[in-house]
Amino acid sequence: MKQLSRVILPIGFAAAVAAGMISSCRRAEEVDEFSVYDERLAGGAQTVFSEGVGAFSSVFPTLSGARHDFHELGDAHFEASFIASPAPLFQGLGTIYNSNACVNCHINDGRGKPILNNEPLTSMLFRVSVPGTGAHGGPAGAPGFGGQLQDKAVFGFQPEALVNVVWNETPVYFSNGDSVMLREPVWSFINAYQPFPGGMLYSARIAPPVHGLGLLEEISDETILSYADEHDLNGDAISGKPNYVWDNQSGRHMIGRFGWKCEAPTLVQQVGGAYNEDMGITSTVFPTESSFGQLQHDNRGDEPEVTDSIFNSVVFYVRTLAVPARRKVTDPTVIRGKEIFTEAKCASCHIPVMRTRTNVAFPEASNQRIQPFTDLLLHDMGPGLADNRPTYDASGSEWRTPPLWGIGLTQLVNGHSYFLHDGRARNVMEAILWHGGEAAGSVNHVKNLTPSDRTALLAFLNSL
Amino acid sequence: MNYCKTLLLAASLALLAVPGCKKEDTDDIALSGLTDQEIQGHILNDFCQKVAIPAYAEMENRMNVLYNTCVAFDASQTQQNLDNARNAWREVRATWEQTEAFLFGPVSTNNIDPSTDTWPIDFNALDSLLQTSNAFTQSYINSLGDELKGYHPAEFLLWGQNGNKLAGDFTLREREYLIALAADLQIKATSLRSSWDLSVSGNYAVQFATAGDVTSIYPSQRAALEELINAMAGICDEVANGKIGEPFTLADPSLEESPFSGNSIADFTNNIRGVKNVYFGKFIADGYGIHDLVAKNNLALHNNVATAIDNAINSFSGITVPFGQAITTQPTQVQHVITQVNALKDALENELLPYIQQTVTN
């Protein structure tokens, strides 16, 4: 009896383990990564349950002690207003710039908006270049203007140019005859401080929201490349390619993750670029004034204008901004919308779920299951959205898949729902209908939806 | 001697606070027969009707007074006219600082805050600007950077760098610039007041008051109540750890926000009065406030919050010299303010907020 049980037990145990393995293997095949977890946790452990104006402004909930204090320091400097040098406090603005504080474009850490008439730009800017490539394969700076048009200047200096806009509207029809008016901007530049170079290329850019960026930085290159299909070997008409851009810290090309065309490889470079080009403030990362070689250069030789400790605190601030939780995830309409999102192949590029890499140096963001709804890759969006201004490997019609987490809170946080790189879409449906190129099939799918399914798709997107 | 005076002052203020409490206990807001959900609806509606809208309306009116007094001073540079303009500036500030207890909605999304209350100002640019002959038209002011418009350049012009400017010290250019700044502030105040107009459908105020309806950007009444509490806690944090904490910790008076007028203590106190307005739902006329819901269901919590509010407001009376001096000559009193305002922040963030999150279900 004893002996038998001794024999039977191990056998029984082994059988049970084997059965368990089989069933768990089966489960593994059936697991829908999209729905088996708590879908509200868009940012993994760094999710905040916030449905207010501060939804994009919360610190990582697990950040503690001195790291939390460093985030707060960065927050204060993200909000600080700079003025021209020399000044006792917050000097270094300009001489030419787009905004005098991070927060004035990224209002509430959220999304900027386009100008609707001929008024000063508040939370958008223009990248400029001339045809050909510049250093390291990037855009060739426009002589006299560089890589970005600064539309403001400190007192006594002239802005590079001011911007005017006219909006043209055209209708687009759903298959049942319903229509939506799409508006398209026609930009023009006035009062340039000197003539523009011939054939200058320009691209309008809305300030994107800055929450969750630290999690996106922790997605491994391997994960990003696993979504790439540059030559469409799987024949789904959707490619997806990485943009290899210059990282001036490591002195090599890296996969770009941030910016409307994946032009920044790291948050250090993204933030450094923003200080330098958007505010005219030099840092160790970008020690040369954006106005160098131009009439507006101040010749002060006071670089870097922002200290490393303050600069690093601002990088750390955006790196540790949490992601708002999804809402209404069990609502039947939202669930139906989620099915449509997949059926229409939106989810082929707006990848719902992925994991960040393991990084012991950044435990808060390490190995998190997140729902960013991006693949951080470039896709051809067709001529309708093209800016015709290539950036490294991105052609004039290729754009990064922007993350969709938090889009349903845009109206609440920023008081508008203008989407896409230049803010032309006035709501989510207009943004969908502007997609072309690789997304043409998805748009056709949406145009053929019944009105109730369209409502469901929007309900899902608003739950993000 | 000074210490005795301070104690007396504090004691008399504490006495003054008592009738305030009594009035709140016996306020004429009827709660009987109302469900919590109905009370919540009243709170959100009255926040718009009885707090935000009258506050922004008062700000607009006081901005008009500021403009008119600046024009009068330009016409006749008497000390009395200068004092009138300075008082008008302080009055506008008093209202604006109270509205900073709810820095959400159009004031934030329409860039009103940075274009009126940017700090620091750029002395060099301001001087250079005054040296030019550029006409101070509205479009010219509009084209200037945020650091050259709003409250603080106006304050600098009114008081001078050391706060001792005389009526006869003003140049024509300074008076013209002052009028143009006041006119620009008027435009911003009017835009802010009209952006809260409840009769315009789609306006932010309508969305806020109807939180929980399918047409509102606020998915629930709870979300809107959380917005109020987060805003109140946010200004407490800003006052305790930013506006007061930074100059105090670094012992650097140059970090003071309203140094020329010596108005900083009034600014800070009005920030916390703004918290009181929101919590009690009262700016001028009494309306439903969060306190009605909390006092009905959890009197101990209400007492904690109400006491913390009064303690924070009363703590400022300990500081008897301008703030820039107090950070070095009255550090104990300044630290006391920081402690009390942080205690209020904690009561809002760690007691009131979780209570609302856990008990408000719609």
Short synopsis of the structure:
The complex is a heterodimer of chains A (464) and B (362). Chain A is of the alpha+beta class and 464 residues long.
Task: List unreliable stretches of 5+ residues of chain B.
Answer: 1-26
C-alpha geometry of chain A: globular
Low-confidence stretches of chain A: 1-29
N- and C-termini, Cα separation of chain A:
61 Å
Percent of residues of chain A in helical segments?
A: 25-40%
Order of helices and strands of chain B: HHHHHHHHHHHHHHHH
Overall SS class of chain A: alpha+beta
Mean pLDDT of chain B comes to 91
Q: Please give the radius of gyration of chain B in angstroms.
A: 21 Å
Most extensive contact: A-B, 34 and 41 residues
Strand content of chain A: 15-25%
Helix content of chain B: over 70%
Largest sheet of chain B: none
Count of discrete alpha- or pi-helical segments spanning 4 or more residues of chain B? 16
**On the 0-100 scale, what is the average pLDDT of chain A?**
92
Strand percentage of chain B: under 5%
Overall shape of chain B? globular
In total, how many beta strands of chain A? 16
Question: What is the count of β-strands of chain B?
Answer: 0
